[in-house]
Design goal:
Layout lengths: L1 H16 L3 H8 L3 H8 L10 H7 L4 H5 L7 H17 L2 H14 L4 H14 L7 H18 L3 H17 L3 H8 L9 H11 L3 H28 L5 H17 L2 H4 L1 H17 L3 H17 L16 H7 L10 H13 L11 H14 L3
Length: about 375
């Protein structure tokens, strides 16, 4: 494949320059037959000739060979989406093998390695017996970033992804080593930054700064909720209070439309908690709300703002490595929406209820997961 790519490149460059194979051969100091072999993919130029060829065409050697040591953010997003779709349509081992080849080819493209770690983490549940190998591969990528990258943002992200992986491998000591056993006090830096923008006569940027901060805090509160709920499973009053307060946040900020996954994970966790408390009626009510959110999802899903958070769309596209796109392909998302209920042993008796079974059947039909 690489030979064909070089052959096409060297042939196209010669034709663009308007010269014959004889003329190129004369300049480089080889025979016309040698140039012909390069252009048909039968051979490569001697390595010592590459600088002369590159100079002749005013290119770098990497450009001449069609090699990109680094990929752009757009390249990475496109590749991530392509691989994500392949997981939905091809055998896991085939896609996994391609990912490993890409990792080898772009060994030091750290933004790409970060997204490959995220991709592996998002699809590790499909790996079967290779699940631990996939998780360990994601950890290796994170370690490579931590050891060799000088991008502090990427290093922080890699620590977070590795910590997630280590939790899956039941390694809490490593998690604390990565993230620390304490957390920083709230500093209000976003308020300071917004005030600075105001002083610079840039009120739009000040508003964006505060909006983005509020958005992240709202989603962050809901992301914490499932774990906090499980810590109060034996205190039904406190459990109910947590559910009530988090629901008020969901409704106040219209999270069902703003960030469907945050709402879905919360309702699913609340339903599981109520089943553990043997309260089927409340669990069924949480499943009803879960299904309600599912029915509101518009595919293909993208993260977005709304009438209140009207300044975050540009930030999402700019700051998120995958932009506003979902981290998994559409079919996998739809399937996981259903299996999150059907494969959860806590819901076994709940699924026998006529009302719950009917809701789930209708949802399967709507999502095309019959």
């Amino acid at each position: 494949m690489k030979e064909l790519q070089f052959a096409n490149t060297i042939s196209a460059l010669r034709k663009q320059k308007g010269i014959t194979q004889d003329q190129l051969a004369s300049y480089v100091g080889v025979s016309k037959a040698a140039v012909s072999k390069w252009e048909t993919g039968l051979s490569y130029p001697d390595i010592l000739l590459l600088p002369k060829l590159a100079t002749y065409y005013n290119l770098s050697i990497d450009e001449l060979l069609g090699y990109k040591p680094q990929l752009t953010k757009e390249d990475i997003q496109k590749l991530y989406a392509e691989l994500s779709q392949e997981f939905a349509s091809k055998p896991f081992d085939e896609v996994y093998s391609r990912i490993r080849s890409i990792i080898d080819e772009y060994y030091s493209c750290f933004p790409l390695l970060m997204q490959m770690a995220v991709l592996l983490l998002n699809y590790q549940s499909m790996a079967g017996e290779k699940q631990q190998d996939v998780i360990n591969n994601a950890i290796e990528l994170c370690n490579r970033i931590q050891q060799s990258s000088d991008d502090l943002r990427l290093i922080r992200q890699s620590r977070s992804i590795e910590a997630h992986c280590q939790l899956m491998l039941k390694q809490p000591e490593r998690v604390l080593e990565l993230l620390g056993d304490d957390f920083e006090l709230y500093t209000g830096n976003e308020i300071i930054v917004a005030t600075a923008y105001q002083l610079l006569q840039n009120p739009q940027k000040a508003k964006e700064t505060l909006q983005v901060s509020m958005y992240q805090y709202v989603i962050g509160i809901l992301s914490i909720a499932p774990n906090y709920l499980m810590m109060h499973i034996h205190d039904s009053n406190q459990f109910d209070e947590i559910v009530n307060r988090k629901e008020k946040i969901i409704n106040t900020f219209d999270v069902k439309n703003l960030h469907y996954n945050a709402a879905l994970v919360f309702y699913l966790s609340a339903a599981q908690g109520y089943m553990m408390q043997k309260n089927e009626d409340k669990a069924a009510e949480m499943i009803r709300k879960y299904v309600q959110v599912c029915n509101m999802i518009e595919f293909p899903f993208t993260l977005h703002g709304d009438g209140f958070f009207d300044l975050i769309d540009e930030w999402l596209a700019r700051e998120l490595d995958l932009g506003s796109n979902a981290p998994r392909d559409e079919q996998t998302i739809k399937t996981s929406i259903i299996t999150s209920i059907t494969n959860n042993p806590h819901f076994k008796t709940l699924l026998e209820r006529t009302d719950v079974n009917a809701m789930l059947t209708n949802l399967q039909h709507k999502l095309g997961c019959d």
